[in-house]
Design goal:
148 residues; 3-stranded antiparallel sheet; 6 helices; 3 strands
């Protein structure tokens, strides 16, 4: 785990770079790439609707998973001051996972794994960007459920 903590800044930088590259692929205008990632949602929806998902190879799925996780991470970082952290995960191949931690004013910190959120979304097509955002926010505890 010590090595994972040491590599955290590199992981965060790589995630941000992945987001920047993915955002450009959506054909969003330049001004949409520099502000709140929520501005990319219409471009992401159009991009995703045009993907030939039934023709995807395993590599294509891995790339899409990584791209969507980087978008979700950027959204949480920008809108909820999330930061990358390391969480023990004994069942994962490396024994840990990189997650996003969010400080909540009342309830302490919340955690969300953007890769888990995206994996869940990819199992339940169609891929809905707004649903991924809502799931990440609820998981991290930065929004309240309607029945609370």
């Amino acid at each position: 785990m010590a090595q994972a903590h040491d590599e955290l800044p590199t992981w965060a930088g790589d995630s941000h770079q992945s987001f920047q590259e993915f955002a450009k692929e959506t054909n969003a205008p330049a001004e949409a790439l520099t502000g709140d990632p929520i501005a990319l949602v219409p471009y992401l929806r159009a991009y995703l609707s045009e993907l030939p998902l039934n023709e995807f190879t395993q590599d294509d799925w891995v790339t899409l998973h990584t791209d969507l996780a980087s978008f979700l991470a950027e959204f949480m970082i920008t809108n909820h001051a999330a930061s990358w952290a390391v969480r023990e995960a004994p069942n994962s191949p490396r024994g840990f996972r990189y997650v996003l931690a969010v400080d909540r004013p009342v309830a302490g910190s919340g955690v969300v794994d953007p890769f888990e959120v995206v994996a869940s979304e990819l199992r339940s097509p169609p891929i809905e960007v707004a649903r991924m955002i809502a799931t990440a926010e609820l998981t991290a505890g930065v929004t309240r459920r309607y029945d609370q």
